[in-house]
Amino acid sequence: MLPEKYVITIGRSFGSGGRALGKIIADKLGIGFYDKQLLVKAAEKAGYNLEFFEKSDERVPKIMGGIIPFSMGFYPMSWIGDSASGADNVYKAQCEFMHELADSEACVIVGRSADFVLRDIPNLINVFVHAPMDKCVERILQRSECSNAEQARTLAERTNKLRANFYNFYTDKRWGRADSYDLCLDSSLLPLEVIADMVIEYVHHRLDGKA
Fold first, then answer.
1. Domain encompassing residue 79
2. pLDDT digit string, tens, across residues 187-205
């Protein structure tokens, strides 16, 4: 039997289907799923305008822009500067809300450096989902997010850079590197339903009996 409270985090390259995989896993396990919903709830709790939250989501504070590679603490660096405080506060609100989730329920959380934010909690499993760029481009086009392959590739490369900069800035790990996660999965090799079952089997092997 799985414990009452555990968290599966999903890091993902853009177009790899990581969000979709996370939703399938959450549905199969009957647990909460948080991606954009996390933004809404954290914004409401912190009293922020949701539009501002979305603009700052998974973005490095502009004043730094990747000058300093990572923070050494749990929360963003206090010495970044006033002009970066908005993005800092967004990140801090998300961190606090993720800890509240981990303390209250079992769930899947997608992105937002959740694996690092929750690194000290028990029953944490971290997954990274990737795929070859041509497969990511195909998925992006299937989702009708771009009108042609060149646009899709540009969008994927830009989004991956933003996600990597955000993750590397706020953590002491490297986005997408195998040693930053428990499982790294190529979503192009098997259907997402099959991959979800594999992750769930891993979760049971890791956590069964810890209830």
1. 7-205
2. 999 999 999 999 999 999 9
Distance CA 127, CA 115 (A): 9
The encoded tokens of residue 209 equal: 């009996």
Q: Are 126 and 182 in contact (CB under 8 A)?
A: yes
For CA atoms 70, 75, 79, 80, the dihedral sign is positive
> Do the domain assignments include residue 171?
yes
More confident residue, 44 or 33: 33
CATH code assigned at 99:
3.40.50.300
CB 135 within 8 A of CB 115: no
Q: Which residues pair with 124 in a beta bridge?
A: 7
Q: Which two structure tokens, joined as six digits, stand for 38?
A: 């996390």
Contact status, residue 58 vs residue 166, Cβ threshold 8 Å = yes
Chain CA centroid to CA 188, Å: 19
Number of domains in the chain: 1
User: Which stretch of DSSP H or E encloses residue 207?
Assistant: helix 192-207
Question: Contact 71/170 with Cβ under 8 angstroms?
Answer: yes
For the chain, the residue count is 211
